[in-house]
Amino acid sequence: MSGRLFQRWLGLSLVAAIVLVAILAPWLAPYDPNMSSGSVLSRPSAANIIGTDQLGRDVFSRLLYGARVSLVIGLAASLVGMVIGVPIGLVSGYVGGKADLAVVQVVDILISLPAIVMALIITAVVGASVTNLILILGILKWPIIARIVRGQVLVLREQAFVEAARSIGCTTTRILARHIAPNIMRVLGAQFAIATSTSIFTAASLSFLGLGLPPPAADWGGMVQSGFDYMFLNPLLTLAPGAAVTLTVLSFYLIGESAK
Amino acid sequence: MIRFVLKRAIWVAPNILILTFLLFAILTSWLGSPSAMMLGLDASPAAISEMNRAYGFDDPIIQQYVRWLWAALQGDFGRSYATKQTVSSMIGSALPISIELGLWAICLSGFAAVGLNSLIPRGKISGSLISAVSVVSITIPNFMLGATLVYVFAIYLRWLPTSAWAPWSDGILDHLLHLILPVATLSAFYFGSFSMIYRAEYRSVMNQLFVRVARAKGLSATRVSLQHILPNSVLPVITFMGITLGQLMGGAVVTEVVFSLPGIGRTFVAAIRGNDYPVILAIGAIVLTGMMVTNLIADIVIAWINPQVRLSS
Q: What is the ipTM score, two decimals?
């Protein structure tokens, strides 16, 4: 379907652009993201395209650096989710029995908990840092990944090639690693992109609520929050970082949806 | 049917106990003793241990949990450290606000998602327009949509108030005017999810034989869509609406903060930022319990409608 293809290309090129911005931030940014220029809350001008924030920092430079934080947290969190979720889903789906029942029970409960509320509680307990956020968001992601992997395995394990592998004496580990895992790569890729998208979404919401990375960090959700009070003066302080989050979440989501 | 309900209900109670106990244990052990928090950073160790003894914070955690649970079951969640109000009165005034906001949003977005997707012909342009809107409404964070709406309608056009809650006593018009932007913000996300679910189901029902028969005997496209396809594809949307309603026990956290609505979500965020332990615990426990109960209800409704479910398990 051409719509799908368009979605995928749009998603991929946007992600490529955001990654480039993140890597090239030091060269693209006109100013140091954490240095005050002295003029506080100045309106957009040739010197400061978006203006300066309440501490006199150039918002455009902070916006570019913000891509780093978002991407690192989003990608790493979804990796953590995969590392926990994939093996659990594989084993639970393939082996079945009591262990599978237990996994299904736990996963069902965890999935139905509202992510933002859980993230708030855990962040309040352990505190927010890049590592903590990655772990928290990753831990919130694994149940959904485990459920999807399990669903795939349930279908695959009944197929002839798996039975053939079993009958020539392959061990369970070998069947899972060599015969089943390669067949779920496409689904895993899609899930990885979607998990990245939702992790960036949740991380930004946490920072917006004031529980994200501590202050000097150039982080989009936090920028939206601090700009919110100055909406009357310069709406771009809020809308520009907000648009950046939306674009990033959207582009990963498009990749994931189009690969499903 | 009764056996099915009982079987499910029996699972729910222990799950609620385990989850609330985990919450209790995590909060008490990691946040440190509540006395240290209440007395502040410069409290002497002697004062802290004195208070620990007086309030029983030294007791084994299971004993503290049972004591908390027993009081909570009678509606006593203690007092907030920050506001000194009883937690139950705080929740009592915040919950109706979150529930009203949520009900508006869920109902409106449910109707919009089902209505638009059944009525608008699946032509090339209109079809892809709805799917584009659905995707964007899922991926745009609430704070961004809220900020944009505030800027456009409250600051630039000056049609609507920027934020705050107007109770019914301020007059119906004022009440509703203050609700428009928050409800629109919250609805967007739900609209996207409901729309995705409905479209997937609609597409699979659309190709079934009875639909072709309906069309073949000359019914109009609208009639086929509303009378034949809709009833057979709306169920997953209703289930999901129920689950969403359960999640709203935690309030629409981000939306409430954007629009300064004094609902459960904003109370919760304030409690977390201020380490207000009794409030975090109470709202956390209510969210968990609400979730489990709505999931149970959703299961029962599905089983009631679809006998395959209750007979197979």
A: 0.86
